[in-house]
């Protein structure tokens, strides 16, 4: 039996505590907040999207940074095993659209309570409002941690599960990156990820609150298409948000930090240019004696209509039967290519996760142990691992935590 200290009482830290305690280790978990799982509590809008029930190919395709590193952990503790694990703890689950897995109760607090109960059953020592100041090692071997009150706690192994720097109000303030650097590790460049984006155009504010379903987006760096996706999005007072935008943010973060990018929204992706032109012609035919501004109600949500009128460069009062073919085709092109200029990501305050982290080349993918300091482990979001929305980031947390928990030597 080893004495193990775990820094961080979030998803990864709690699960690792359970698994390591089940192996017979003596576990001491340190959390600087006044309660466990603060970030877990707000995931999935407070419903906690535990994992994704897709197949392994889907899981790996949804990992945006270093998917190969996760091979051992994902197969050691699969999404099916995650579901079974929580069901066995009394958290009944259900699968929703996009294979997202949630507790039947729709309460993230049930997931946190189940982990807490299990830790207590296993005798895990939990220290709340207890901040770790530093990790101490000698000759490449971990030996103790130093608390903020300068109390030193010796142990055989230390697991860093401090998360990233997104949602800093939940206590994610980047401590893990500092610990890693102090122990000789490198940390890759950090960006907010799964985060809304700001746009330059005046009309974003006019569209605030408008949600669009079944649209397609493409993002361009000059002429090069760097991202595309189909789904839902939302306009905000500063720009754009919603599922397709959050996912896009993880793919374009680095580029967007260097220069603005072009966002093209296809408002009618189910229709080809030709079919859309026929549809517009039909509308025009039906309302040929009306003014243009009164002939397009069926094509857009009410909030979008004034903007489309403005951008079409067709006089709103112009009679429909006076609109030229060139004007109509330009209007059709606008519907298929509603453009905005992405200028920046929103801040870490709004980011679901952090992109970047402890360099995975310096961590053993088969155990999560540091290659630089024996007895030191890194799990979850503190590592340079991130994924799309849909339960994939929590799967990373559970799988890496499990692998570390079973790998700590007796």
Give a structural overview.
32% of the residues lie in helices and 23% in strands. It contains 13 helices and 19 strands. Helix 1 packs parallel to helix 6, helix 1 (11-22) runs parallel beside helix 13 and helix 10 packs across helix 12. It is elongated, with a radius of gyration of 25 Å.
Task: Give descriptors for this structure.
19 strands, alpha+beta, five-stranded parallel sheet, elongated, 410 residues, six-stranded antiparallel beta barrel
Largest sheet: 6 strands, antiparallel, barrel
Radius of gyration: 25 Å
Q: Outline the low-pLDDT stretches.
A: none
* Head-to-tail CA distance between termini: 5 Å
Strand line-up across the major sheet? 12-15-14-13-16-17
Approximate helicity band: 25-40%
How do you describe this structure in short?
By secondary structure, the chain is of the alpha+beta class. The chain has 13 helices and 19 strands.
Topology:
Layout (H helix, E strand, L loop, with lengths): L2 E5 L3 H12 L3 E5 L7 H5 L8 E2 L3 H6 L9 H6 L2 H10 L4 E4 L3 E4 L4 H14 L3 E3 L4 E7 L2 E7 L4 E3 L2 E4 L14 H8 L8 E3 L3 E3 L3 H4 L4 E11 L2 E12 L3 E3 L1 H16 L2 E6 L6 H14 L18 H8 L12 H12 L1 E8 L7 E3 L20 E3 L13 H16 L3
Parallel strand pairs: 1-2, 1-10, 2-6, 10-19
Antiparallel strand pairs: 3-5, 4-5, 7-8, 8-9, 11-18, 12-15, 12-17, 13-14, 13-16, 14-15, 16-17
